[in-house]
Every structure is written in C-alpha cells, then in structure tokens.
Amino acid sequence: MSIEKDVVSRAIKGDGKAFAQLYEEHFDKIYRYVYLKVGNETEAEDLTQDVFVKALEAIGSYRWRNLPFASWIFRIAHNQVVDYFRKQGKVEKVDLEDDAAPADESNPAHIAEQKFEIAELRDNIKKLSPSQREVISLRFGAELSTAEIAEALGKSAGTVKALQYNGIVALRKMMLGNR
Amino acid sequence: MEDILNECLERIFKGESIETCLNAYPEQASKLEPLLKTSLVLMRKSAAIQPDAEYKARAQYQLQAMFYAKHERAEKRARIPVWHRKWAVAMTTVLVVLLAGIGTVAASASALPDDALYPVKLAAEQVRVTLAFSDVDEAKLHLQFAERRADEMTEMARQGKSDKISMLTEQIAKHLDKVFVVEETQLVEGKGPGVQEVRPRALAPPSPAPSEEAEAYGVGKDVEELKAVLSQSWAKSLAALEGALDKAPEKLKPAVEQAIDSLAKDYDRTISIIESGSS
C-alpha cells in the first residue's frame, strides 16, 4: 500500500493525525488553485475551507479504485468554484480588488515585488480561455500531474496536454508583451 | 511537442534542470527552451501565493474538531440501540465537539513552531482571546501568549533552529501591540491611567566578538545578525510594555510587570544560547 493510500485509509477510519496530514499536503495547493480562479483572497479562504468541509463529509465514500485522492479533492474544489460563480451570477472572471498574501517574507521590497508578480500572473491567467485557465491553475497552482488533472476534470490526458501547451504559449506571449 | 513539453515539466517539477531536458531533446530544444523558461516563471510566481497563517491555523482547528465529532458520532451510532438514537445523537454531538476540541488543544499545548499541532495551539489561543470576558482579560491573554512565544523562541534557539526566531519575535510584537490597543481603549473609557512607574531594564550586553561556539552554532555573521534582531525586538517589546505599564489599569499592572520579567529572562537566555552555540 502506498503511503498516501495508507494515510487516506486511516483518515477514513477516523484517524485525526492522518486527516491533519492530508490537510497539510493539500491545503496550500487548493488555496492557490482557488485564488487563481477567483482572484480574491477572502473568497479564496472561504472556498478553500468549504472544499475541506465537503471532503470531510464525503471522505467515507471515497474509493481508491476510481481516482487518486488529489484528483478527488480537486474535483470537489473545481465543483465549488463552478458553484461559486453560478451562485454569484457571474461569468467566470478574476476579481481585481484584492491582493493575495505573498509567501512569508521580512523584506518589504521583496514583498512588494512578489505582490506585483502575483497580480501580473492573476491578470494574465484571466485572459486565457476557461479550459486553459483551469488546466494552468491546476498544473502550476496545485502542482497536479496531467494524469491527475485529467481525472479531476474528466478529460483525456491528451486534451489536458494540449490545453497546457496552448496555455503556456499564450502566457509567454502575454509576458513578452508586458515588458 | 505537447508530450515532450509535458514530460519535461514532470521532470522539472521533480527537481531536474531545464538543461537536462533540453539535452534529452536536442532537435526540439530551440522551441522547448522558451516554453520551459515561461513555465519556471509560472512555478515561481504560483509558489509565492500563500494563505494567511492565522486563517490556515483557524481553519485547521475547526476542521479537526468537525472530523473528530463526525467519527465519534459514527461510532456511537453503531453501538447505541435504534430507539436510543434520537436523544443520544444530540447529546453525543455536543459532548464530542467539546471533548474533541479540548483533547486536541491539550495535546497541542506543548507544541513548538515546527510541530504539526502548533497551528492548533495558535488557533486555541485565538479562540481564548475571542471568548475573553473583558478587555483586561484579553490584554492578560495577549501578555501570556507573548511570554509563551518567548519560551518557544528560547527552545528554538536551544535546538539550533534559528530560522524560527524572527517569526517568533514578530508574534511577540503583535501580541504586545494588542495589549496596547486594549489599554488605549480603557483610557478612552476613563478606566486609567494608574500610577506611573517605569522600571528601566536592559539586556545583558552582547559579547564583543563571536566565540568559537557561536561559529559552531552558525556562521558568525548570521549569529550577529540574529542577535541584532533579538536586541531590536527586545527594545521594542520593552518600550511597548513600559508604555503599557504606564497606562494600564491597576488590575492589569501585575500581569504587565510579570511579562517584563519573564520576557527579559527569555530574551537574555535566547541571546546567550546563540552566543554560546546550540547543544
């Protein structure tokens, strides 16, 4: 049994430490993915917590034979984000009101630079097609493999690779245009 | 090309360099290189997005409590006869939420900044502050938590984990700032100030040059920088505490005085550990 399989099995049986381990493993990645999708720190915090509450409610029904745990929890995250935009009556776009916190740093100049870079990334990603944005957010925000992304989105691995390729090409053009 | 790009990305995510991948695909290298460089920029910028630490700790605490409650409920349901379940479910839920919370928090009480349960400890402190009955109680809690951070700082120094010390000095400053805010509120409400008595206190003077043991703890320059961070942090803490003592209502003064004593000892101890090297 793989380590993650063992941890998930223990969490399903009620082992709090195992659940804490899954939380540590996936929390930041889910937050980054959600933030890149909604572009607002407060909304990203609420949605990330909702993802874990849903995962907690449904973890008893999780089965390994269907899909990897990362794909399973990111499918929940994807559905939460879709639901969020539906309830808001919004077209999926990135809100520009809020700056995400950069990784912990004590140098103010570096913090400012990081904030600028995060905002630039968020602005560029919002210009991609919805499918490209989904794949790029899952690949770079959540650090999922293309196989895991394919499972989470219910797409073929070939489609995910094509979306990834076209997304990176488009982002490169944007980055060069920003200079 | 899509497959090759993907394979290279998988390898880069695992820690390989761009060059390794370009060498593996020399014919595609000219097309591949700019895309991989763009991907590296995307990785770096994405990694800079981090959730707020306090929010993360609070969320973890709440989820852990829900997790324990859910599983205790399931176990009880399996044991209790059907005709007992309606009332038993209600009672169990309440008790389990309370007990699970208390159990987890108790287990986290001695956690240090690099322990898995440390976020639970911080979240539990936040809950206590939220539930404080009065502004003075809240200020006392912040003083108590500042002292805890100072204890943890000393322990981190003893274990040679100097990377946690700056973070802890910031946490101490945050707690003391909050004490000050509470006391200013008290002043506005006409509950202070009390007797003005400020006691001068200074840290033991730092050694003139890093010793051999200090070199063993880390590079000498790093040790000096760390000592400077600690000295500045202590000066700031002391100023905040003396300002607080000046304005504090009578019932808060003993707690402020105790915090000054305790923090002075912890800062002294931490600096001397850093000077003499970790054990």
Please give a quick description of this structure.
The complex is a heterodimer of chains A (179) and B (279). Chain A has 179 residues and is mainly alpha-helical.
H/E element string of chain A? HHHHHHHH
Rounded to the nearest angstrom, the distance between the terminal CA atoms of chain A is 49 Å
Q: What is the residue-averaged pLDDT of chain A?
A: 81
Counted by DSSP, the helix tally of chain A is 8
Helical residue percent of chain A? over 70%
Rg result of chain B? 26 Å
Biggest sheet overview of chain A: none
Give the terminus-to-terminus CA distance of chain B.
54 Å
Low-confidence stretches of chain B: 187-219
Helix content of chain B: over 70%
Number of strands of chain A: 0
Q: Strand percentage of chain B, roughly?
A: under 5%
How are helices and strands ordered from N to C of chain B? HHHHHHHHHHH
| Most extensive interface between two protein chains, with residue counts | A-B, 51 and 42 residues
Low-confidence stretches of chain A: 93-99
Mean pLDDT of chain B: 73
Biggest sheet features of chain B: none
Q: Please work out how many helical segments of chain B DSSP would assign.
A: 11
Oligomer kind: heterodimer
User: How many DSSP-defined strands of chain B?
Assistant: 0
Chart the SSEs and their pairings:
The complex is a heterodimer of chains A (179) and B (279).
Chain A: H1 3-12, H2 16-38, H3 41-58, H4 69-88, H5 108-125, H6 130-141, H7 146-153, H8 157-178
Helix pairs in contact in A: 1-2, 2-3, 2-4, 2-6, 3-4, 4-7, 6-8, 7-8
Chain B: H1 2-13, H2 18-24, H3 29-47, H4 53-79, H5 85-108, H6 118-130, H7 135-158, H8 165-188, H9 212-217, H10 220-247, H11 253-276
Descriptive overview:
The complex is a heterodimer of chains A (179) and B (279). Chain A is mainly α. Chain A is built from eight helices and no strands. In chain B, helix 1 (2-13) crosses helix 3 (29-47). Chain B is 75% helix and 0% strand. By secondary structure, chain B is mainly alpha-helical. The chains are: A mainly alpha (179), B mainly alpha (279). At the A-B interface, helix 2, helix 3, helix 5, helix 6 and helix 8 of A face helix 1, helix 3 and helix 4 of B.
